[in-house]
Design goal:
Organism: Salinicola rhizosphaerae
Number of strands: 9
Protein name: Glycerophosphoryl diester phosphodiesterase
Strand order of the largest sheet: 1-2-4-5-6-7-8-9
Number of domains: 1
Helix content: 25-40%
Order of helices and strands: EHEEHHEHEHEHEHEHEH
Pfam families: GDPD
Largest sheet: 8 strands, parallel, barrel
Strand content: 15-25%
CATH class: Alpha Beta
Shape: globular
Bound molecules: SN-glycerol-3-phosphate, magnesium ion
InterPro entries: GP_PDE_dom, PLC-like_Pdiesterase_TIM-brl
């Protein structure tokens, strides 16, 4: 039974999976998010040198694996030899880099929602990424369980060109701060949502956006006091390394 068949925007999105508790952007982090009761995850997608889409945040592999160098220097076979779990904790030793394909299969099986971030590292080709990553994602998930976001405007434009119907593809415009004329950007792309850094957001701008039909998501909020403040500002959803902190906080407030 899918956990999120409503078309309401997600209240919480587990950032890079449940990245406070498991190695970010792995199958384990998505399973952990599901086990903790999260319905949605945010994940970053990029291409390996051979064009395989994989779930990975950095341009390099040093921080989150036992290898070093650039992601785009790897092919699928060499990526599959990396340990992407031990850096986080011994219990994750042997975790493998997730291909987009394997990740989509897991998310489908778990009935979760996905905010897929098209991550265009410096010098990489946005169009190639969209062409490789978007079709299988659109095929795997129903439109109400998918939001495709990016900081990269070329990637968003290419995504909209590939699927012009805003009901069939929800696009999220990612930025640290709201662009001055944010509505021009979101209208041009027929976007579903704006995804902003809460640390750079002020109440006035938040309420102005909340008054419009565009959805507003904030990243990366990790403490219950911030969650409460953002709800008060009319934010639709938060992207958090640990949404379970909110659930715990709510339970404390009730008791
Ligand atoms: O999608 C929100 C957030 O993930 C954007 O920043 O660097 O964590 O991918 P980053
Ligand atoms: Mg991201």
């Amino acid at each position: 039974d899918p956990r999120c068949d409503s078309s309401a925007p997600p209240r919480y999105i587990a950032h890079r999976g449940l990245s406070a508790r498991a190695p970010e952007n792995t199958l384990a982090a998505v399973q952990a998010a599901h086990d903790a009761g999260c319905e949605w995850v945010e994940l970053d997608v990029q291409l390996l040198g051979d064009g395989t889409p994989v779930i990975w945040h950095d341009a390099g592999i040093k921080r989150c694996s036992d290898g070093r160098g650039k992601l785009f220097k790897l092919d699928a076979a060499s990526a599959a030899t990396l340990d992407v779990g031990s850096w986080f904790g011994d219990q994750y030793r042997g975790e493998r880099m997730a291909t987009l394909e394997a990740m989509l299969t897991l998310i489908q099986r778990l009935g979760m929602g996905l905010n897929l971030e098209l991550k265009v590292s410096r010098g990489r080709n946005a169009i190639e990424l969209v062409k490789a990553a978007l079709p299988p994602t659109l095929e795997a998930l129903p439109p109400e369980r998918l939001i495709v976001s990016s900081f990269d405007r070329h990637a968003l434009t290419a995504a909209r060109a590939l699927e012009s119907d805003p009901e069939r593809l929800r696009l999220g415009v990612l930025d640290d701060k709201a662009p001055k004329r944010w509505w021009q950007e979101t209208e041009r792309l027929s976007a579903y949502s704006l995804h902003l850094d809460w640390r750079k957001l002020k109440i006035k701008r938040a309420r102005e956006i909340a008054d419009e039909s565009i959805k507003l998501f904030c990243y990366t909020a990790n403490d219950p006091v911030t969650f409460e403040k953002l709800w008060d500002w009319g934010v639709d959803g938060v992207i958090s390394d640990d949404p379970t902190r909110f659930v715990m906080h709510a339970a404390e407030q009730r008791s």
